[in-house]
Amino acid sequence: MNTLKNADRRVLITGGAGFIGSNFVRSAYGGTASLIILDALTYAGNRATLSDLEGPDGCLLVVGDICDAPLVNQLLEQHQIDTVIHFAAESHVDRSILGPGAFVQTNVVGTFTLLEAFRQHWHRQQQPAHFRFLHVSTDEVFGSLAADEPAFSETTPYAPNSPYSASKAGSDHLVRAYFHTYGMPTLITNCSNNYGPYQFPEKLIPLMCVNILLGQPLPVYGDGQNVRDWLYVEDHCAAIATVLQQAAPGETYNIGGNNQVKNIDIVKQLCDLMDRLAPDLPVLSAHDLITFVRDRPGHDRRYAMDSTKIQRDFGWQPQYDFATGLEQTVKWYLAHPDWWQPLLAQQQSAS
User: Is 76 a member of any domain?
Assistant: First the structure.
């Protein structure tokens, strides 16, 4: 796993208590960079995920909103931040359909707040060449692919189809504009669907794992033929570290797992794994829990990422094939009910 290598680098990580952010914190923690984490600890952010890393000799978690400009300015100045890695986002498509306002606020206004604060901080420090603002985005900004269309590249036109993907597209455009207008040293990465430890159990893979353990239905949208490119989260974190260390300001990189899989096939693989690995399941074959439900509005049919550029420029490529990563993920959720059970209790109390 790549770590942040510059002993003098002062890093602010937004959304560091979330799924991808916390995995990145864990991968970066083995380096020598000083890590400050800003997280609002909404439903998908979990302080318990980082509890073993906090402390005088570890990372510092600040509970706060990326839209809070005075707080962001204070953190940049107080900790002399030279690098922002921006994970914080509202990211669940279903939630964006029900309540798009929060997505515009966090993903667009929040990103603008961070960019403007970092620009002013960068100017006060006489525009050092080593400063970086790395924005973590998604493949969903590119829209949907037909079965025979080539994978998304860095030059694919944006065509977002949900309030979530539209808000992420807006944030991408702001980051790009700050490089071209102000010369600010920004970077953008667009990743495919991530999976792995510490993912909130509303997303497909952890939801299916938890529902199988509880003997609850496994809801599959539509005909289950929607295709996603799956990227193990540790591979994603390694790619982000690589881009941060080696890419020139203003560059954009696609990061994919080279694993295009239909949703129904993932669910069936999870059923096979759980039947084999989990003792005493409430339903003897998890396959019996599969339930097709009405498709969600604007459900993109297929995503696929062309990662040629990052492979060509830096030699990065995913280390996990899907079968290996999926089994490792299932084993993690089986071994850590103490992590996900409190989250289910919080969901139930909030509903």
Answer: yes
- What is d(CA 88, CA 19) in angstroms, rounded to the nearest whole number? 10
Phi and psi angles of residue 279, each rounded to the nearest 5 degrees, phi first: -80, 150
227-232 and 260-262 beta bridge pairing: antiparallel
Neighbours of 282 (CB within 10 A): 11
Q: Which of 82, 140, 235, 300 is catalytic?
A: 140
CA distance 22 to 86: 12
- Determine whether 43 is an active site residue: no
Residue 101 lies in a domain: yes
Task: Check: pTM over 0.90? Answer yes or no.
Answer: yes
Residue-number span of the structural domain to which 156 is assigned: 10-199+231-256+303-319
Residue of 39, 82, 139, 235 marked catalytic: 139
Look up 164 and say whether it is catalytic: yes
**Cα 209 from Cα 349, distance rounded (Å):** 21
Q: Is residue 270 part of a domain?
A: no
Could you tell me the CA-to-CA distances from 303 to 53, 75, 102, 107, 232 in Å, in that order? 35, 37, 25, 21, 16
Q: Is the pLDDT of residue 333 over 80?
A: yes
Q: DSSP secondary structure string, 270-318?
A: HHHHHHHHSSS-SSSSGGGGEEEEPPPTT---B--B--HHHHHHH----
Number of domains the chain is built from:
1
Among positive and negative, which fits the CA dihedral 273, 278, 280, 281?
Answer: negative
Write b or e for each residue in 197-236: b if 16 or more Cβ atoms lie within 10 A of its Cβ, otherwise e: bbbbbbbbbbbbbbbbbeeeebbbbeebebbbbbbbbbbb
96-138 pLDDT, tens per residue?
Answer: 788 899 999 999 999 999 999 999 999 999 999 999 999 999 9
CATH of the domain at 195: 3.40.50.720
* Catalytic site includes residue 139: yes
**Ramachandran angles phi, psi of 80, nearest 5°:** 50, 55
Model pLDDT for residues 36-65, shown as the tens digit of each residue: 999 999 878 889 899 888 877 779 999 999
